[in-house]
Design goal:
Blueprint lengths: L2 H22 L1 H23 L4 H10 L6 H5 L4 H13 L6 H15 L5
Helix pairs in contact: 3-6, 5-6
The protein binds heme C.
Amino acid sequence: MNSATLGYLRRRLGETVHIRSAAHCPCLLWLIALAIACIPLLARSQDVFPDSPARDTVAVICSQCHPLTRILDSKLSATQWEALLYDMISRGATIYDRELTLVRDYLVENFAADER
Ligand code: HEC
Protein backbone atom coordinates (compact mmCIF):
# COMPACT_ATOMS: atom_id res chain seq x y z
CA MET A 1 0.00 0.00 0.00
CA ASN A 2 1.55 3.31 -0.97
CA SER A 3 1.21 6.46 1.05
CA ALA A 4 -1.48 7.94 -1.20
CA THR A 5 -3.72 4.95 -0.61
CA LEU A 6 -3.00 5.08 3.06
CA GLY A 7 -3.91 8.76 3.17
CA TYR A 8 -7.12 8.04 1.27
CA LEU A 9 -8.07 5.26 3.65
CA ARG A 10 -7.34 7.45 6.65
CA ARG A 11 -9.54 10.19 5.28
CA ARG A 12 -12.33 7.73 4.51
CA LEU A 13 -12.05 6.22 7.94
CA GLY A 14 -12.05 9.69 9.48
CA GLU A 15 -15.20 10.56 7.58
CA THR A 16 -17.07 7.42 8.55
CA VAL A 17 -16.05 7.74 12.17
CA HIS A 18 -17.14 11.34 12.14
CA ILE A 19 -20.53 10.65 10.57
CA ARG A 20 -21.13 7.63 12.76
CA SER A 21 -20.33 9.41 15.98
CA ALA A 22 -22.65 12.27 15.12
CA ALA A 23 -25.51 9.94 14.24
CA HIS A 24 -24.96 7.58 17.16
CA CYS A 25 -24.58 10.21 19.79
CA PRO A 26 -27.82 11.92 20.72
CA CYS A 27 -25.90 13.87 23.32
CA LEU A 28 -24.17 15.74 20.54
CA LEU A 29 -27.55 16.87 19.27
CA TRP A 30 -28.50 17.87 22.77
CA LEU A 31 -25.32 19.88 23.07
CA ILE A 32 -26.09 21.70 19.84
CA ALA A 33 -29.65 22.37 20.98
CA LEU A 34 -28.35 23.60 24.31
CA ALA A 35 -25.85 25.91 22.63
CA ILE A 36 -28.61 27.41 20.51
CA ALA A 37 -30.83 27.80 23.54
CA CYS A 38 -28.05 29.70 25.29
CA ILE A 39 -27.72 32.40 22.66
CA PRO A 40 -30.53 34.62 23.99
CA LEU A 41 -29.15 34.10 27.48
CA LEU A 42 -25.73 35.34 26.42
CA ALA A 43 -27.24 38.30 24.66
CA ARG A 44 -29.20 39.06 27.78
CA SER A 45 -26.18 38.95 30.06
CA GLN A 46 -24.38 41.34 27.74
CA ASP A 47 -27.26 43.76 27.98
CA VAL A 48 -27.45 43.64 31.73
CA PHE A 49 -23.73 44.12 32.24
CA PRO A 50 -23.34 47.66 30.91
CA ASP A 51 -20.27 48.34 28.85
CA SER A 52 -17.45 50.05 30.70
CA PRO A 53 -13.69 49.64 31.09
CA ALA A 54 -14.47 47.75 34.30
CA ARG A 55 -16.79 45.24 32.70
CA ASP A 56 -14.15 42.83 31.47
CA THR A 57 -12.30 42.99 34.76
CA VAL A 58 -15.47 42.13 36.64
CA ALA A 59 -16.29 39.36 34.19
CA VAL A 60 -12.85 37.79 34.50
CA ILE A 61 -12.55 38.05 38.27
CA CYS A 62 -16.09 37.23 39.23
CA SER A 63 -16.80 34.32 36.92
CA GLN A 64 -14.04 32.11 38.27
CA CYS A 65 -16.07 30.39 40.97
CA HIS A 66 -19.71 30.96 40.09
CA PRO A 67 -21.73 32.38 37.22
CA LEU A 68 -21.91 36.13 36.84
CA THR A 69 -25.65 35.87 37.32
CA ARG A 70 -24.85 35.79 41.05
CA ILE A 71 -24.32 39.51 40.71
CA LEU A 72 -27.73 39.98 39.13
CA ASP A 73 -29.46 37.88 41.73
CA SER A 74 -28.16 39.96 44.61
CA LYS A 75 -29.90 43.05 45.84
CA LEU A 76 -27.09 44.72 47.71
CA SER A 77 -26.58 48.32 48.77
CA ALA A 78 -23.36 50.21 48.02
CA THR A 79 -21.96 49.36 51.44
CA GLN A 80 -22.93 45.73 51.07
CA TRP A 81 -21.23 45.47 47.67
CA GLU A 82 -18.01 46.76 49.15
CA ALA A 83 -18.27 44.27 52.00
CA LEU A 84 -19.06 41.51 49.54
CA LEU A 85 -15.80 42.14 47.68
CA TYR A 86 -13.86 41.50 50.87
CA ASP A 87 -16.03 38.46 51.48
CA MET A 88 -15.08 37.13 48.03
CA ILE A 89 -11.41 37.84 48.72
CA SER A 90 -11.69 35.87 51.95
CA ARG A 91 -13.13 33.01 49.92
CA GLY A 92 -10.11 33.08 47.64
CA ALA A 93 -10.84 35.68 44.95
CA THR A 94 -7.78 37.55 43.72
CA ILE A 95 -8.60 41.22 43.34
CA TYR A 96 -5.63 43.56 43.16
CA ASP A 97 -5.73 46.92 44.90
CA ARG A 98 -5.88 48.81 41.62
CA GLU A 99 -8.89 46.72 40.54
CA LEU A 100 -10.78 46.99 43.77
CA THR A 101 -12.05 50.54 43.28
CA LEU A 102 -12.83 49.87 39.64
CA VAL A 103 -14.84 46.76 40.42
CA ARG A 104 -16.60 48.30 43.41
CA ASP A 105 -17.60 51.41 41.48
CA TYR A 106 -18.90 49.29 38.62
CA LEU A 107 -21.00 47.11 40.89
CA VAL A 108 -22.30 50.04 42.92
CA GLU A 109 -23.05 52.15 39.87
CA ASN A 110 -24.98 49.42 38.08
CA PHE A 111 -26.31 47.04 40.70
CA ALA A 112 -26.68 48.81 44.02
CA ALA A 113 -30.06 48.78 45.72
CA ASP A 114 -31.07 51.50 48.16
CA GLU A 115 -29.42 51.39 51.58
CA ARG A 116 -31.59 49.60 54.06
C1 HEC B 1 -12.57 32.29 44.78
C2 HEC B 1 -13.91 32.06 44.37
C3 HEC B 1 -14.82 33.26 44.15
C4 HEC B 1 -14.60 34.36 43.35
C5 HEC B 1 -13.39 34.66 42.47
C6 HEC B 1 -15.77 35.20 43.48
N1 HEC B 1 -16.68 34.59 44.30
FE1 HEC B 1 -18.53 35.26 44.74
N2 HEC B 1 -18.88 33.62 45.88
C7 HEC B 1 -17.96 32.63 46.14
C8 HEC B 1 -18.53 31.70 47.07
C9 HEC B 1 -17.83 30.45 47.60
C10 HEC B 1 -19.83 32.17 47.38
C11 HEC B 1 -20.84 31.61 48.36
C12 HEC B 1 -21.20 30.25 48.08
C13 HEC B 1 -22.21 30.15 47.03
O1 HEC B 1 -23.34 30.58 47.26
O2 HEC B 1 -21.89 29.64 45.94
C14 HEC B 1 -20.02 33.36 46.58
C15 HEC B 1 -21.20 34.10 46.57
C16 HEC B 1 -21.37 35.29 45.87
C17 HEC B 1 -22.58 36.08 45.89
C18 HEC B 1 -23.84 35.75 46.64
C19 HEC B 1 -23.67 36.27 48.04
C20 HEC B 1 -24.86 36.00 48.89
O3 HEC B 1 -24.77 36.32 50.08
O4 HEC B 1 -25.87 35.49 48.40
C21 HEC B 1 -22.33 37.19 45.15
C22 HEC B 1 -23.26 38.36 44.87
C23 HEC B 1 -20.99 37.08 44.65
N3 HEC B 1 -20.44 35.91 45.10
C24 HEC B 1 -20.39 38.03 43.84
C25 HEC B 1 -19.07 37.96 43.43
C26 HEC B 1 -18.41 39.04 42.72
C27 HEC B 1 -19.02 40.38 42.38
C28 HEC B 1 -17.16 38.59 42.45
C29 HEC B 1 -16.05 39.34 41.75
C30 HEC B 1 -15.56 40.50 42.44
C31 HEC B 1 -17.03 37.23 42.98
N4 HEC B 1 -18.21 36.90 43.57
C32 HEC B 1 -15.91 36.43 42.86
C33 HEC B 1 -16.73 32.51 45.58
C34 HEC B 1 -16.14 33.41 44.73
